[in-house]
Every structure is written in structure tokens, then in C-alpha cells.
Specification:
alpha/beta, 2 domains, two-stranded antiparallel sheet, 10 helices
């Protein structure tokens, strides 16, 4: 129920959806006063949420900064969270998505000896269509990258971050692999993920991957010209912020 509710309510998070609502109200309302008000709401809403500078600064504050591993720093396992796979149902194929740096960092850390095993946690985040599993695809790719099959663990049933932690704990406990572990996921997501894993009793150290915002100066034109990418970035940030608050309220983080 929590999973389905989160997916349904997720429709309310994107600022773009609200922008469409304000425009719709401005067009269909009969009251000229309210039509005018919603026109201004739509304009101000668009200018704020499409501003590249605002969301860039907020993303820098939210995402966890990159981490350098020290010489000799090793962990019994690296836990890689799914979400880096996209599936083509028509052709029955899977491909890496733009979050695939999670996967690449796990392989790099394994090859350099910082993690002894790789646990990929992730099923399908879809409500109804559950044919493809992120972890299954990731295992195939790990083998192609030369990772020893004995060092690969997967759990392909989780659908959200809480289930990532729950099912990963079961796999690690069953395999007798003691922590602490290295938690590998996107820098925007790892703040929430780390709290959920720790709350679940899984001792982890955060390793941010897929850095989405770099600390560089933005020129004046670029800082004020509206960008559709900014609206998408707002959706990702709000998803993480609201998700963390909901997890805290429900005792999951």
C-alpha cells in the first residue's frame, strides 16, 4: 500500500504538473478576476521553477559531495541501488540509463580492491509491469565486466528505497557477510538512502555517485534564461526532500 500510494501521490510533486493546472484554470474559469490571478500565478511559477541558478544552488546544497577512498580502505561489500536501468518492453531489451554511474563506480571500486563483493539491489519501480528487474540486468553486465560470479549478489524484489534496505539486509545476513558496507547510489539520493539503511540496522558508509550538480560559476545570461531542464531538476529534488520527510514520519528513516 505504501508503494502504490507513493506512486500515486508522486503525480503531485512535479512543478510542471502544477504549471499546467494554473494555465488550465486561467483558461477555463469564468471569473475575470480569478482568470487574471491564475495567469500571474502561472507566469511567476514558470519563471521561478525554470530558473537555472536557483535550482543549481539548491542541488549543490542537497547532494552529498564526492568522496575519495583512502589507500587500504576496504569493505566486505558494496551495495549498489537500482534505478540505472531502462527497459524496452517492445524489443525485450534493457539498457543503462543516465544514472549508470552507480554501476560504473561499483565496478571501479571492486577492481581497485575497495569492496570485496557487489550486491545489486533493485527490482522494478513500476506498479503493474514487473517483468524486468534491474538487478538481473546488472548481474549480466557485471559478469561481462569481469567481476567474479562468486562476488556478485543480487536481490531483485525491491521497489523503493525502504525495500532496498530491507531485502539487502536479508541477503547479506543470509550470506553471512558482516558490515560495514559501502552504499553506492546517486549523490541526490544517498542522503535519504543512508538514513533508511541505518534505520533498518544495516551499517553503511555513503559513497555518492552520479554527481548531478558541479560547483562552478553560472554566467549572467545562463542564470536568468528559463530552462526546461530546471523544471525536471526541481522534480528530482522535491522527490528526495519530500521522500525523506515521509520516511521520517512513517518511521522508515
Amino acid at each position: 500500500m505504501f508503494f502504490i500510494l507513493s506512486k500515486v501521490l508522486g503525480f503531485l510533486i512535479p512543478p510542471f504538473n502544477w504549471l499546467i493546472l494554473w494555465i488550465f484554470l486561467a483558461l477555463v474559469l469564468k471569473s475575470e478576476k480569478w482568470k487574471k490571478r491564475f495567469k500571474w500565478v502561472a507566469v511567476c511559477w514558470f519563471l521561478f521553477f525554470s530558473n537555472p541558478y536557483i535550482i543549481h544552488q539548491l542541488n549543490l546544497q542537497w547532494q552529498v559531495k564526492p568522496r575519495e577512498m583512502e589507500a587500504g580502505e576496504t569493505y566486505s561489500a558494496g551495495i549498489v541501488l537500482g534505478g540505472f536501468v531502462q527497459h524496452d518492453a517492445k524489443n525485450n531489451k534493457a539498457y543503462f540509463s543516465d544514472a549508470s554511474d552507480r554501476f560504473l563506480q561499483a565496478v571501479r571500486l571492486y577492481k581497485k580492491g575497495h569492496i570485496q563483493k557487489i550486491l545489486v539491489s533493485g527490482g522494478s519501480g513500476k506498479i503493474f509491469y514487473q517483468q524486468y528487474k534491474d538487478a538481473d540486468f546488472a548481474k549480466e553486465q557485471l559478469l561481462e565486466f569481469g567481476v567474479d560470479s562468486a562476488d556478485i549478489l543480487i536481490e531483485n524484489q525491491s521497489r523503493n528505497t525502504f525495500e532496498n534496505a530491507d531485502f539487502s539486509k536479508r541477503v547479506l545476513d543470509s550470506a553471512g557477510i558482516k558490515g560495514p558496507y559501502l552504499l553506492i547510489t546517486s549523490a541526490m539520493h544517498i542522503r535519504r538512502a543512508e538514513k533508511v539503511f541505518v534505520k533498518k540496522g544495516v551499517p553503511v558508509q555513503a559513497y555518492p555517485a552520479h554527481i548531478s550538480a558541479l560547483d562552478f560559476p553560472i554566467g549572467f545570461p545562463a542564470a536568468i534564461i528559463p530552462s526546461i531542464n530546471s523544471l525536471n531538476s526541481w522534480e528530482n529534488l522535491l522527490k528526495e526532500f519530500i521522500g525523506l520527510q515521509v520516511y521520517k514520519l512513517t518511521g522508515k528513516a
